[in-house]
Design brief:
The complex is a heterodimer of chains A (about 120) and B (about 110). Chain A has about 120 residues and is an all-beta fold. Chain A contains no helices and twelve strands. In chain A, a hairpin with a 6-residue loop joins strand 5 and strand 6. In chain A, about 35% of the residues are buried. Chain B is mostly beta strands and about 110 residues long. The relative contact order of chain B is 0.33. The chains are: A mainly beta (about 120), B mainly beta (about 110). Chains A and B meet through strand 5, strand 6, strand 10 and strand 11 of A and strand 4 and strand 5 of B.
Chain lengths: ~120, ~110
């Protein structure tokens, strides 16, 4: 079955620490990959996306992610987190193919808490 | 543009009551989706639509019905609410050609079933 797994459920960091959130998907075919962020009390917002081309993708607010096809991974990184990065982060995958209708499959989410 | 708008934002129901959540988008998107968000489970797809007049089941469709009579609206109905349907519901829409396109989300509707 198609699935998305986020390994870290709850991460606590101090400001200026580096961040890496893991995301793995289960299917070996063609995929579109996304990271969404949900700030407290708000709706989901797109952080970055990968469709094709350069596997290192840069998003908003200094976030980046690297698509490693051989590892079925799309990990999110940020060199130095800020208190305002406190939020829940979701990895999502769009599995492409004839039976797919563009629906996203989401990971369980990772709650990031940044201490000032 | 308003983007994706959900109404109501909050609702409390008693077990067995019915209600409808409305999702409206003004981006002329073909695809629309209803997700539910529960702690530790991420977002799970309830139903979706690939165009006006079409609907299809997602991962967790039981207990819900949907309709897409107009392209801009996607309605989610609960005919007989159960406490297990207490959740935050998100509507999303997608443009793009073929399979490619990011989802735009509404602000969510928090439903409590007592």
């Amino acid at each position: 079955a198609q699935s998305v797994s986020q390994h870290n459920h709850h991460v606590i960091l101090s400001e200026a620490a580096s961040l890496e959130l893991g995301c793995n998907y289960s299917y070996g075919g063609t995929v579109n990959l996304f990271w969404y962020v949900q700030y407290p009390g708000q709706h989901l917002q797109l952080l970055l996306k990968y469709f094709s081309g350069d596997p290192l993708v840069k998003g908003i607010k200094g976030f980046e992610a690297e698509f490693i096809k051989s590892k079925f991974s799309f990990n999110l990184r940020k060199p130095s987190v800020q208190w305002s990065d406190t939020a829940e982060y979701f990895c999502a995958v769009n599995y492409l193919g004839s039976s797919n209708t563009g629906k996203l499959i989401f990971g369980q989410g990772t709650t990031l808490q940044v201490k000032p | 543009n308003a983007g994706v708008t959900q109404t109501p934002k909050f609702r409390v129901l008693k077990t067995g009551q019915s209600m409808t959540l409305l999702c409206a988008q003004d981006m002329n998107h073909e695809y629309m989706y209803w997700y539910r968000q529960d702690p530790g489970m991420g977002l799970r797809l309830i139903h979706y639509s690939v165009g006006e007049g079409t609907t299809a089941k997602g991962e967790v469709p039981d207990g819900y019905n949907v309709s897409r009579l107009k392209k801009q609206n996607f309605l989610l109905g609960l005919e007989s609410a159960a406490p297990s349907q207490t959740s935050v519901y998100f509507c999303a829409s997608r443009g793009g050609t073929g399979w490619i396109g990011e989802l735009f989300f509404g602000e969510g509707s928090r439903l409590t079933v007592l």
